[in-house]
Amino acid sequence: MAKLILSMDGLVLKEIPLNKERISIGRKPHNDIQIDNLAISGEHAAIVTILNDSFLEDMNSTNGTLVNGQPVKKHFLRNFDVIELGKYKLKYMSDLPASGTTQADFEKTMVLRPGANKGPEVKRGFTDTQTGLPKPEAAPVVSLSAAIQLLNGGNAGKELELTKTLTTLGKPGVQVAVIAKRPHGFFITHVEGAHFPVVNGQSLDAQAHPLKDHDVIEIAGIKMEFFLKA
User: Fold this and answer.
1) What is the pTM of this model?
2) C-beta of residue 191 within 8 angstroms of C-beta of residue 175
């Protein structure tokens, strides 16, 4: 299991296992990793872990987030990367092989555009295609196939098949979620934004939520139906 080692001025404060799909970091007490320092924003950053891969996202913090001395907004974490939040450092350590995702893969986000042109350049009503993690060799492929269909906006009725291990949905800077394809089904997880995805009228929390046939998902004002395909 991957972990973070929190330190300040070279003094190790604690180790934090990445045992949840989403770990929030910030000054406010509701964060999974609370750092009570005025240089840290209330909700500063988040780390999403899918299979063997972890991704860091700066949550529009006031003072920014550095990785290995470089400012980042989104970053695919590699072993021994050092995340810097003010005077605090979080070293990422993992004894598991990464499943092959690149930084470019992570930065591709499927942007929902309700008023988008319906021409051929907007395939299936999205400005970009899916972003996916190549499956680890040890993980069996999900036997089920699934898709989502847009229910409102200018591209209502368009479908997108969920063929990749990880599909990112939403509007960057507003609300982003991922649908992960796993050996035992499909799961949706919140990644970015003050509001969590809504499934069948119920707001989700930070944990991964299993999707069932005909679930209605709402992300960034766009409604879509998840359905399994034969």
Assistant:
1) 0.51
2) no
Residue-wise pLDDT tens digits, 174-194: 788 888 888 788 999 887 778
Spatial distance between the Cα atoms of 101 and 33, rounded to a whole number of angstroms: 25
The answer to whether 58 touches 73, Cβ cutoff 8 Å, is: yes
**Cα 184 versus chain centre, distance:** 19
Q: How far apart are CA 195 and CA 28, in angstroms?
A: 17
Output the DSSP codes for 110-177. Answer: EEB-TT---STTSGGGBSS----PPPPTTSPPPS-EEEEEE-SSTTTT-EEE--SSEEEEEETTTEEE
For the chain, how far is it from start to end, CA to CA, in angstroms?
Answer: 35
Segment holding 222, helix H or strand E: strand 222-229
Give bridge partners of residue 58 from the DSSP assignment: 45
Q: Give the mean pLDDT of 211-227.
A: 92
Do the beta carbons of residue 220 and residue 171 sit within 8 Å?
A: yes
* 7 contact partners, CB below 8 Å, separation of at least 6: 13, 88, 89, 90, 91
Q: What is the Cα Rg of the chain in Å?
A: 18
Which of 175, 182, 226 lies closest to 196, judged by CA? 175
Q: Any idea how long the chain is?
A: 230
Over residues 106-124, the mean pLDDT reads: 45
